[in-house]
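Example record

One chain of 258 residues, shown exactly as stored in the release files.
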Amino acid sequence: MSTLQPIRVTVWGEFRHEKNNPEVTAIYPDGIHEAIAAFLRPNADFSVRTAWLDQAENGLPQDLLDQTDVLVWWGHMAHREVSDEVVARAKSRVLEGMGLIALHSGHYAKIFKALMGTTCSLKWRESTDKERLWNIAPAHPITQGIGEYFEIPAEEMYGEPFGIPTPDELLFISWFTGGEVFRSGATWQRGHGRVFYFRPGHETYPTYYHPQVQQVITNAVRWARPTVCIPDACPNAAALEPLPEDPAAAVRPTQGFR
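Predicted structure tokens for this chain:
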């Protein structure tokens, strides 16, 4: 029996479109966050919970974040309503080692923009585009089981330029029927934490029921699992070796030095 602890996953969503838009309610009656959690829960190495915007402290109090190994984030219409305090504590946890997976419109989430330090802007079109995602890093843990490419029959288009810093690793490039291309799967290291952005997932399409989308997110949770947890500190460190009693001796030239 494995002695490894389960990966503690928190799936966060706004849970607004699902309440206000009948088209979205019909696709995700329990919320997008629950649809994502539903395909993650059967994995024996995951322990999955959900949180959403209108809960106390936007669903992300400090004690919950402290017990989260990987935070999966879906947001769209209410980015501005996430408090700066919540963003600061989530960013701090990523820098300590927590993983972050930002999905679709999460490119404009405060937490993602805070970690990227750039605009994270792009162009978009909600239409009848087919999306073909090319797997350009087939040896990467996140792309395992995906194949050379996969297609989503209808999705919102995102197009370049995408205002992100150059990724540490670019895993997927999307092509859309309208001709645009997009860097749709990318990773970064931020402090001790790993960040993955994955593009598909507009609320009016059943994208999170797509088996390969589910596989990518499942793989990403395992990849983003923390390897360390090192809280930020600025300690006054004692010397490991004896120091000269006279501080000037440490910098005074020795006899014969040229």
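Notes: The chain has seven helices and eleven strands.
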